Amino acid sequence: MRSLPTCYFLTAAVFGLSGMIWGIQMSASGDHTLAPAHGHLNLIGFVAMAVFGTYYALTPRAAAFRIAWVHYALTVLAVVIMVPGIAMAINGQGETAAKLGSIAALLSMGLFIYVVARNGVGAGFAASDALAPVPRPDHHPAE
Ligand code: HEM
Ligand code: HEM
Predict the structure, then answer these.
(1) Is the pLDDT of residue 143 over 60?
(2) Is residue 124 classed as helix, strand or coil in its secondary structure?
(3) Distance (Å, rounded) from C-alpha 53 to C-alpha 93?
(4) 96-119 vs 49-58: helix axis angle to the nearest 10?
(5) Ligand 1 pocket mutation, candidates 38, 44, 79, 86, criterion most atoms within 8 A of CB
């Protein structure tokens, strides 16, 4: 299984790419009606997830707890419920999904407060490993 920070960054990049394609589509069509949904796909999907991923990469001890995966799932859930929810609210199709997504987003940030308060930043991080030169995959040291 991929590491938690990798999952955060991969998901963030997929949300970010989708948000940018949506932004280009809005620009091209001249219809900016759904701009807040596009904005929050980028802001929570890309920005917040990348910030969380950075934190877990810097704090392996926090990433080792199962609650860190709960945090990841909750953040993904917030995005996939909230973004269509905002679009639905704008289109007059009801606000339930936007409200549920917002609650998931709040819980995700609340959980982040708990994780940071409990673990601090940097626990389990070996700066010497991070700064050491990484051999290229095709580089085979003398056998
Ligand atoms: C290819 C990249 C992007 C394109 C083409 C794009 C395009 C747009 C367009 C056309 C609007 C509507 C502007 C208006 O009506 O005033 C908009 C709004 C917005 N975009 Fe983007 N965008 C891009 C990337 C991003 C990124 C990376 C973020 C955040 C990290 C972002 C955040 C926002 C926000 C917050 C709004 C305002 C939403 C609101 O009015 O509530 N966008 N964007
Ligand atoms: C529970 C989570 C959130 C809720 C319920 C929420 C709600 C809202 C609402 C109702 C608006 C006004 C949309 C409109 O123009 O019609 C808005 C705009 C905006 N939000 Fe959020 N938001 C949330 C999280 C965030 C986060 C995490 C960020 C940044 C990382 C963010 C950044 C913005 C920005 C930049 C705008 C656009 C302001 C503008 O166009 O003047 N929001 N948000």
Answers:
(1) no
(2) coil
(3) 33
(4) 20
(5) 38
